[in-house]
Amino acid sequence: MNYPNGRKGKGQPSIRTGQKKNDFANRGMTLENDINETNHFYLETNHAVVHKKPTPVQIVQVDYPKRSAAVIKEAYFKQASTTDYNGLYKGKYIDFEAKETRNVSSLPLANIHEHQVEHMRKVLQHGGICFFIIRFSKQEDTYYLPAEFFIQFWDQQFQGGRKSMPITFIKDHGHSIPFTFQARVDYIKIIDKLYF
Amino acid sequence: MNYPNGRKGKGQPSIRTGQKKNDFANRGMTLENDINETNHFYLETNHAVVHKKPTPVQIVQVDYPKRSAAVIKEAYFKQASTTDYNGLYKGKYIDFEAKETRNVSSLPLANIHEHQVEHMRKVLQHGGICFFIIRFSKQEDTYYLPAEFFIQFWDQQFQGGRKSMPITFIKDHGHSIPFTFQARVDYIKIIDKLYF
């Protein structure tokens, strides 16, 4: 039996749930793409060395077909134990997480994990530069929020504080990130202003 | 149809090539495990914040079964574009790659990729601490080799130099890493000696 992708099918083909697959592919895609392009630009121009970490995956089963690449046949998404991005700028360790929301007035804390915040605390303790990049995609506004302020707000939610961070808090404690043609999320500009 | 793992089978079960799977599971396992435990110890004792990056995987197909976790059904290993480990120690960015060999007298350069070396060059340029951890597993000797020396040797292979790094070169330019009960690959000791 032959499938359109040119490979032989074995037994019953698994069902591709197109809709859901798309959801996965697009999740946070715009901000992530912009940051990846920005990091690529920083790398090419020798400004900074910053990479996105690969998505953590628990691999359960791998097939090794003859004369072709190993195929992972069963794997699961794992929760990240750190932030998504880290690297090096002017000798300093930098570390950040990117979050995009379609809300217009606040960022829900629900999709940020406790151990990511713990990681950020440690980075600050050890003298790293740590922050969030937050995009409100409807307004297309992107902010740099130092982790210090994020953590302060985060901790308050356990003492009856809000579960959602208002855009006013982000504007008050953060910095609008300029969009430029080459560096679409030019966060290094903010780091320069704050630390150098 | 029920399989030993308790899940229902669909169609023809894929063949698990036990031998090869084992090879994969064990590849570099000892050194990697030791480094992971060491990093865990550094993290717990608040010495340093260093993590292994997840294995980079190209995800092709994901199933979203009702009432259970998303299952990755088709994915491929990608070549890493950076080193495997990075993090933060006393405010400094650190970055390294771990290699284990069963050879007794040299480390073959074949399983180190050009773009990993390029990454290391950039880390050095930007003021990071960059090195290799190399283990000769038969002797159970583990060395810290500063990336500067590795790169020097690496570049020579393209001018008729050796494709394999002799253990004598590693001993001359590197540092034996002590094995302690809690920090099985106590590389921070070497960093302290070299940089602080």
UniProtKB/TrEMBL annotation, chains A, B:
A single Gene Ontology CC annotation of this entry is: cytoplasm
Q: Enumerate the Gene3D superfamilies for this protein.
A: 3.40.1350.10
Catalysed reaction equations from the record: Endonucleolytic cleavage at a junction such as a reciprocal single-stranded crossover between two homologous DNA duplexes (Holliday junction)
A single GO molecular-function term is: nucleic acid binding
- Write down the Pfam families for this protein, in alphabetical order: RecU (PF03838)
Q: Which residues bind Mg(2+)?
A: T82, D84, E97, Q116
Q: How is the cofactor bound?
A: Binds 1 Mg(2+) ion per subunit.
- Name the principal localization, coarsely classed: cytoplasm
- Name used for this protein in its record: Holliday junction resolvase RecU
User: Which organism is this protein's natural source?
Assistant: Salirhabdus euzebyi
Q: What does UniProt list as this organism's lineage?
A: Bacteria, Bacillati, Bacillota, Bacilli, Bacillales
